[in-house]
Amino acid sequence: MSKAIRMTRTGGPEVMEYVDVDVGAPGPGEVTVRHEAIGVNFIDVYFRTGLYPQPLPNGLGMEGAGTVEAVGEGVTHVKIGDRVAYAGRPNGAYAQVRNMAADLLVVLPDHIAFDTAAAMMLQGMTVQYLLHRTAHLKPGDTVLWHAAAGGVGLIACQWARVLGVNVIGTVGSEEKAALAIEHGATHVINYKRENFTERVKELTNGEGVAVVYDSIGKDTFFGSLDCLRPLGLMVSFGNASGPVPAFAPSELQSRGSLFLTRPTLMHYTAKREDLEATARSLFGVVASGEVKIAINQRYHLQDVAQAHADLEARTTTGSSILIPH
């Protein structure tokens, strides 16, 4: 038997149960992975609360790293003993051992530790596509990045610096402000003390930014639109404060013919070649030392409720992981 987190209903952190599960042999196209580390991300909260629906009962977690223990029929790109990592649906990473589709897995280079991989696959590949594919950025561009001291934000600040892109980051405390600057943000705005829209206009001499990357949602969406220069791009990739309310498309026109996208990693890595290229790009920038992964919270698997509570309270910085053994 193995241990895993299961939920039979949606709600607060208490709906996650630490239970015994029987993991059978992998089916065709599947592998059995024994986790060494598991990533915790805000999207897990969306599934737990029911904001993102899923059939119940079910597991949680979209990111992990470990070793292949068994291989099902037809699997050729990984073998028993391989070190692997992944980020993607279906949920179920909150487990010591799981069976999963082999197509989600990438082989982990020897120089990247399991905990680093579990902390960076979802967040790091998200930053990769957001900076390299969603927007066409060039050196000297300035972008606004909300939650700059979070796991995605700290990776983004560093990677943007590599690309010569200036980041104005929003944070909720002076400690987080220092952390974002340390990781490459050009400017930071403490949204609890300053109006971020007004401050962005000051920092850009009234011009606005080329792109806004907003994972907060409801609380920041319209203020973010007001930070953009004409023909700027609004990238809404999360709902930490709740979903964005309905609005008229004329809101984009009146602010300067703005562009809006609501991307997700799963579409950008749906093709095997795109998944491998995205992971390879992430592995390269981490291996070079240009981007460092900050694992600032570690929890035992059975303490996942505390991990979620801390995440929702916005007391975490960098990445959080679960240790399954």
Automatic annotation (TrEMBL):
<dbReference type="GO" id="GO:0035925">
    <property type="term" value="F:mRNA 3'-UTR AU-rich region binding"/>
</dbReference>
<keyword id="KW-0521">NADP</keyword>
<dbReference type="Pfam" id="PF08240">
    <property type="entry name" value="ADH_N"/>
</dbReference>
<dbReference type="InterPro" id="IPR011032">
    <property type="entry name" value="GroES-like_sf"/>
</dbReference>
<feature type="domain" description="Enoyl reductase (ER)">
    <location>
        <begin position="11"/>
        <end position="322"/>
    </location>
</feature>
<protein>
    <submittedName>
        <fullName>NADPH2:quinone reductase</fullName>
        <ecNumber>1.6.5.5</ecNumber>
    </submittedName>
</protein>
<dbReference type="InterPro" id="IPR013154">
    <property type="entry name" value="ADH-like_N"/>
</dbReference>
<dbReference type="GO" id="GO:0008270">
    <property type="term" value="F:zinc ion binding"/>
</dbReference>
<dbReference type="InterPro" id="IPR047618">
    <property type="entry name" value="QOR-like"/>
</dbReference>
<dbReference type="GO" id="GO:0070402">
    <property type="term" value="F:NADPH binding"/>
</dbReference>
<dbReference type="InterPro" id="IPR020843">
    <property type="entry name" value="ER"/>
</dbReference>
<dbReference type="GO" id="GO:0003960">
    <property type="term" value="F:quinone reductase (NADPH) activity"/>
</dbReference>
<dbReference type="Pfam" id="PF00107">
    <property type="entry name" value="ADH_zinc_N"/>
</dbReference>
<dbReference type="InterPro" id="IPR002364">
    <property type="entry name" value="Quin_OxRdtase/zeta-crystal_CS"/>
</dbReference>
<dbReference type="InterPro" id="IPR036291">
    <property type="entry name" value="NAD(P)-bd_dom_sf"/>
</dbReference>
<dbReference type="InterPro" id="IPR013149">
    <property type="entry name" value="ADH-like_C"/>
</dbReference>
<dbReference type="GO" id="GO:0005829">
    <property type="term" value="C:cytosol"/>
</dbReference>
<keyword id="KW-0560">Oxidoreductase</keyword>
